[in-house]
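User: Working on a comparison across species. This one is Alkylation response protein AidB-like acyl-CoA dehydrogenase from Thermocatellispora tengchongensis. Can you predict its structure so I can line it up against the others?
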Amino acid sequence: MTVLSPDHLALRKATREFAENEVAPIAARLDLQDETIPEDLLAKMADLGLFGVTLPAEYGGLGSDIVALGVVTEELTRVSLSVGSLIQRNIGCGHILNRFGTEEQKARYLEGIATGRLLTASAGTEPDAGSDAANIKTMAVRARGIDGGEVYRVTGTKQWCTFADRADLIFTLCRTGEDKHGGISSLIVEKPAGGFDPPRLTGTRIPTAGYHGMYSYTLHFDELEVPAANLVGGEEGQGFRQLMGGYEIARIGFAFRCIGLARGAYEAALDYVRQRRQFDRPIAEFQAVRFRLADMRTQIDAARALAYNAAVKASQGVRADLEAGEAKLFASEMARKVAWEALYLHGGNGYAVDSPVNRYWRDSGLLPIGEGTSDIQREIIARRILADA
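Assistant: Here's the predicted structure for Alkylation response protein AidB-like acyl-CoA dehydrogenase from Thermocatellispora tengchongensis:
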């Protein structure tokens, strides 16, 4: 089945050229020196429309479908997981805002998000609320602000908020009521780009083994005032539903991140085994090596088929939580295995931190955990199977 239209193919070509010409030359530096993604690259990504692939054209996005998101994501993460992941933040937050936000909120923020003029982050996870997303404790209490307007005073701690320092907006899940699910609301927190808003909002960086280029933070809110007009949708208690409404596109995008990383690792291994000689011949001539390559390629192609199946359904407006869960589960575990096999085929050279394949291996450790762990995906899949039986 052909799922890529001429427009998809043109977008893939443009993104691949951008990734190879602009991202690949700095990918190793971002990783080894743990630098943040530079501003000039962000500007070039915005010029290409990458922050608004699926967002409406009327707000400055490309107005394309979720298949296009997959195409773009795979090409970017093939050379850098961090760069490929960056666009998901704007697309994910923009999707939620476009679907659930008020007209005033869309008019104020959506064009900036779609064009990359405003960069976003999401703050949902807390020290005691990971997979149990509804267990959040961060409170948002409605009050009159110091300027006399209606505000929410936000107090609590968020964890694993990636790109929080550079983001202009942080979509923050807060508790506004006692009901576990119905007491959750989402607020759009404005902040200075490149910093925080002390003492009411501070951030502590979390060092990570991989995924360099974007920093993750623990955020501390201390009665930070957020305008009541920034309550997503204008109605309290809708935050959990909004979160769930964004998971399909998020998990499909995540699956394509896994596929891109696996493809990058596989291609690095393929190049290496063709060049590396032992016993007077390229190691690609040894059956054990060839079988590994065959398995890696097969697993990547299988994951891509699952991801496109989910993307096509979601693009058609068909419920795709089962397919998104399948794609995310299979692709994330596949990428972890393929990255290890790629490192293994490099031998000791792959274990060197400055080896490109080592970056793929370190980055792959996040994949079965992020955007819902593998076991959470299995639970989602099983729940649908049993409900449909």
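For your comparison, note: The chain has three domains: 6-115, 120-237, 246-388.

User: Helpful, thanks.
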